[in-house]
Design a protein that fits this description.
alpha/beta, eight-stranded mixed β-sheet, 40% helix, 15 helices
Length: 398
């Protein structure tokens, strides 16, 4: 047995979950928020209890110290020596990593070199790794990459139609994201496909950040996000795919720089930009009920973009055996699941139990009826357990 910590470090946050492996028993979970502030927030849940406090958390090292102290104080562990390994979520692994890897100097250097492709993520992940390494220098440390699952794509699925020298010289290509989630969902989805020799799955990770992946025989063949998480379907604040000339045109119209417009595409677009209401789908849905015309447009645009990718991947896979809904919106917004199914049903012959769908939030279930030509399932994602599994596997090899 071993205690394995799964970590997801953001620019101002650090999420964690401690597992007893190989049982995959969750011993505790929590988050340090507002890192860099005097009024940071540290919260932890364990054994049916929870605690939250406002304290100065000036850097990630302090967040890690608070975490380790809480583990001992709450009796979750007796000493730091009980933590056998730490797995770190890394958003961008570039062309270098097709699977999780031990943290070595080479791994660390490559992750750092990829910061330009995920500036908000990779830098924060490294800060988190270094903070843990400082306090727990001898534990096994593993990097688990969001992009790794997508490395099975064929060149015609990941190469952009730009001068090929840019692809080669700058590694400018489609990488995707949410790979850890899509891999988990594809594995969990197999229970609904007994006897299917070559399972074809369309996995819809729909949250504030969202992506759709086409999976055949357990491997990614196509995914919606691109060079960065900005590409693909419309999201909470991100545009998703655009005509590239929109950037040039709007920069000329507004006098804004490319960098300024890029930030607008990332942080002020999507549901927020079109609706003018919120980046939260719940707020947009409420505004739709109130008759807000821009919210209604946002709602339709969001659903249409998701449906377009499902249709595209149905063709890419040569059909589909299962469609999976997951992540914040996919798991907890039955109205969006229904609208998406309504959009694709005439073409794909999909049918779900509407009463069952309307009753479910965050609970796994097969939603499709026996008459549906494609099975549809709601499966809550669990990226942390995937991080723990890969990390534990490396720990066993020590």
């Amino acid at each position: 047995m071993a205690k394995v910590m799964a970590v997801n470090a953001g620019s101002s946050s650090l999420k964690f979950k401690l597992y007893e492996m190989p049982e995959e028993k969750v011993l505790c979970s929590g988050i340090a928020e507002r890192i860099g502030h005097e009024d940071g927030i540290f919260g932890i849940k364990w054994a049916g209890q929870q605690d939250k406090k406002v304290v100065p958390i000036l850097d990630h090292a302090e967040a890690v110290r608070l975490l380790v102290e809480a583990l001992i104080e709450k009796g979750i562990i007796k000493s730091m020596d009980e933590i056998s390994a730490v797995g770190h979520r890394i958003v961008q692994g570039g062309k270098y990593f097709s699977k999780s890897e031990l943290f070595t100097k080479d791994t660390e250097d490559k992750i750092e070199s990829l910061i330009p492709l995920a500036p908000l993520h990779n830098k924060a992940h490294l800060v988190g790794f270094r903070a843990f390494k400082k306090i727990l220098p001898d534990v096994t440390s593993v990097a688990v990459f969001d992009t790794a699952f997508h490395q099975t794509m064929e060149p015609e699925d990941y190469v952009f139609p730009i001068p090929y020298e840019y692809t080669e010289k700058y590694d400018c290509r489609r990488y995707g994201a949410h790979g850890t989630s899509h891999k988990y969902l594809s594995e969990m989805g197999l229970k609904y496909l007994p006897g299917v020799e070559h399972p074809r799955i369309i996995s819809c990770h729909i949250g504030s950040g969202a992506s759709i992946t086409a999976i055949k025989d357990g491997a990614c063949v196509a995914t919606s996000m691109g060079l960065t998480p900005l590409g693909g379907i419309m999201m909470g604040t991100r545009t998703g795919d655009l005509d590239p000339s929109v950037m040039n045109y709007l920069c000329k119209c507004t006098g804004k720089s490319v960098e300024e417009m890029y930030q607008i595409f990332n942080k002020e677009s999507g549901l927020l930009g079109v609706s003018g209401v919120s980046n939260d789908s719940r707020d947009v849905s409420q505004a739709v009920k109130e008759g807000n015309p821009r919210a209604i447009l946002t709602d339709k645009l969001f659903v249409r973009r998701i449906a377009d990718f499902i249709g595209q991947y149905f063709v890419r896979l040569g059909g589909a055996d299962l469609i999976i809904f997951s992540a914040g919106i996919g798991e907890n917004a039955p109205e969006y699941r229904q609208k998406i199914i309504d959009e694709i049903a005439p073409a794909l012959g999909v049918e779900i139990d509407e009463e069952l769908n309307a009753s479910l939030r965050g609970k796994e279930a097969l939603l499709s009826t026996p008459n549906s030509k494609i099975k549809v399932a709601l499966i809550p994602t669990d990226e942390e357990v995937m991080i723990a599994r890969d990390t534990y596997a490396y720990y066993l090899k020590k």
